[in-house]
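Milestone 3.1: sequence recovery, worked example.
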């Protein structure tokens, strides 16, 4: 089996280095996002793209409409209220159990060094895998026209790894700290300004092999439609701060089309 050093560029990203961890944590806390380009060796990128392409026929494709809060519409508000405005998202996804057992993705996800690094940067005591067999590591495919509409995350953080960029489009755009979910402040005015194109947004530059940690619970974000024949391939490493947590059955059916 491959060693972590065969997969991750530990010279560019020395996971066990205290100063490196502190710098990453400071950047995440300051900017709400951490990008680590050159996280993977080029040989790793090539191998993981080839692996993902070989499994793409197993992907479950979804096309859905939702509001930015990822909640059901509120019938007490009008159809034209920003809370009820519907946005489109579409992608293909393969699940943890569909990724080959010897994949470098499993090696990264399960490696104590990577999990300890993530804990140090995110300020978590421990990170646990999902209790269900589908949700811990997912590979997302966004072909021509696929997009991830504007939304806020329900979780406090997300960890992603870009494997392949499209010819055009597929840009990660965000507006930091647009709401305060902890206080129940939804900021309808600010959300409307973003959706109407009246507020400037930030764009995150990512090249293949870039690891991203993002705090999206209060920062609204989207991925613009992919353009061209090259599929955007993105890996999501999903962890929980508590053990024995499974993604809900409703969410599994929505995102994966099956429960197990």
């Amino acid at each position: 089996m491959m060693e972590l050093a065969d997969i991750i560029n530990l010279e560019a990203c020395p996971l066990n280095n205290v100063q490196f961890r502190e710098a990453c944590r400071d950047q995440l806390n300051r900017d709400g996002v951490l990008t680590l380009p050159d996280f993977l060796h080029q040989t790793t990128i090539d191998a993981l793209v080839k692996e993902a392409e070989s499994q793409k026929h197993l992907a479950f494709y979804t096309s859905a409409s939702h509001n930015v809060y990822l909640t059901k519409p509120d019938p007490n508000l009008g159809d034209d209220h920003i809370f009820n405005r519907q946005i489109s998202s579409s992608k293909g996804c393969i699940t943890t159990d569909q990724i080959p057992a010897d994949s470098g993705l499993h090696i990264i996800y399960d490696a104590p060094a990577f999990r300890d690094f993530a804990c140090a940067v995110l300020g978590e005591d421990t990170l646990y895998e999902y209790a269900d067999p589908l949700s811990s590591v997912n590979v997302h495919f966004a072909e021509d026209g696929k997009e991830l509409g504007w939304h806020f995350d329900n979780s406090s953080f997300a960890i992603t790894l870009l494997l392949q960029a499209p010819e055009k489009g597929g840009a990660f755009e965000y507006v930091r700290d647009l709401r305060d979910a902890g206080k129940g402040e939804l900021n309808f005015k600010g959300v409307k300004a973003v959706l109407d194109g009246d507020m400037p947004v930030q764009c995150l530059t990512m090249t293949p092999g870039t690891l991203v940690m993002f705090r999206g619970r209060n920062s609204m974000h989207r991925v613009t439609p992919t353009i061209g024949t090259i599929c955007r391939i993105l890996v999501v490493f999903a962890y929980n701060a508590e053990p024995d947590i499974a993604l809900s059955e409703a969410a599994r059916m929505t995102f994966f089309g099956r429960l197990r």
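The mean pLDDT is 95. The longest strand covers residues 87-94.
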